[in-house]
Amino acid sequence: MAEVITVSQLNRYVKMRLDADDALFDLALRGEIANFAQNAKSGHCYFSLRDAQCSVRAVMFKSDARRLEFRPENGMQVIVRCRVTLYERDGAFQIYVTDLFPDGIGSKQLAFEQLKARLGAEGLFAAAHKVPIPAQPACIGLVTSKTGAALQDILQITARRWPLVRLLLCPVHVQGIEAANEIAQAIDALDRSRQADVIIVARGGGSSEDLWVFNTETVARAAYRCKTPLISAIGHEIDFTILDFVADLRAPTPSAAAELAVPDMAEARHKISSLKQNIQYNMQNRLQLCYNKLEQYPAQRFSGAAQAGTARRVDQLDRLRRQLCGAAHAAQQASRARFAHAAALAGTLDPYHTLARGYTLVQDHTGQVLRTEQLAAGQKIRVVGARRTALCTVDATEENGHENP
Amino acid sequence: MKTPKNFEAGIARLEELLAKIADEATPLAETVKLYAEAAELIEYCTGVLDSAKLQITEIDARLTAQKTAEGEQ
User: Fold this and answer.
1) B14 vs A272: CB contact, 8 Å cut-off?
2) Mean pLDDT across the stretch A291-296?
3) Is the dihedral of CA A353, A356, A357, A361 positive or negative?
4) Interface ipTM
5) Hey, which of A2, A85, A116, A327 has its CA 20 to 30 A from A58?
6) Do B45 and A136 touch (CB under 8 A)?
7) B13, B44, B49: best mutation site toward chain A, by most A Cβ within 10 Å?
8) Superfamily of domain A113-262, CATH level 4
9) Full-model pTM
């Protein structure tokens, strides 16, 4: 009999043997998940993997588990990549799982189904929460790539169908890690702006990986809390995204979203022309009715009374006309008399009348009238009378001896 | 004619006018006035469609988010 060893020594030895075995170091294992539990504090996952006869205990550490796109569940058929080892403390042989794949269905698809089921159960897709899309929006909010084909499609359709609308673009990346946050922020921003009557979240076609951002919970929740009616327009008709389920309306393509969001100009023109015809018809109809009513009354029933009334008014008019003429004539006479008086008064003030009586004016060579105090010896002056003008030179000036010039 | 707020308001007013014109209780003089208004409105609405040009403006989600955040502080 060999030497006595401790349990710890045994476990360490077995663990060492297991770890040294290359076949157990990295292997793929198929089985069904059972007794799945995730430690809330550490984040590590503990479960069993089993087939029809056997089972093995499995651990997946948080650092590996966080990379999973879907949540492992009991009963799920999976293939795991793992290492076989021994948990020394319990002497329990177990596997450490580094990666976990759904068996059969793709992991993305599984994640999609799980998120869809979870959000659906929470009521994010409820028909009762959906709001109707306005028939004639004045402003449409757009969440899409500034450089994408989706934007071009929407611009083209709205310009053709309903150029009255204003587009409010909140440009986003529709791919990459930040895309989900950007799209959610853009939806929030447009909703908060209260300018948009409807919001279209659009992305042109692409592979299902390209459209994956529209399957994120972030975008789904932003769409759900958005109070403005929201149309999803993702990809190419066939695939539904999570956003499609949350949106108030799902359009199969960006072009279709634009068609759904705005009315058709041709229809509007038709509406105007039909209103016009209807109004004209009713107006003519109304006039015709009035004529018909009028014709029911015999003409002569009114003619006697009408004539008497007319004669009286003719007399009255004539009298007024005569009075008016008289008053106008009198007013004219009075004005004329006032004018003659004013003209006579103006005549007496004319300086040339004074010249006619023999007085003269003294002017300088430019014809400017001079006062005697402006005169100086040697100055050339003009002495102007009624008929003749004398050109003179001032010999000398002197004071007259009395005050008045 | 009072210029309507927008195209939709114009169409709504036209529908209202049609109902009044069609109503025999409306006096004839009033009807004629309404008809004149309708004619102007039809011209206005057609004009709006003829001259409409698509407008596009841009907003930045990050800027408005910041603005709101500041506003709420």
Assistant:
1) yes
2) 81
3) positive
4) 0.79
5) A116
6) no
7) B49
8) Succinyl-CoA synthetase domains (3.40.50.261)
9) 0.59
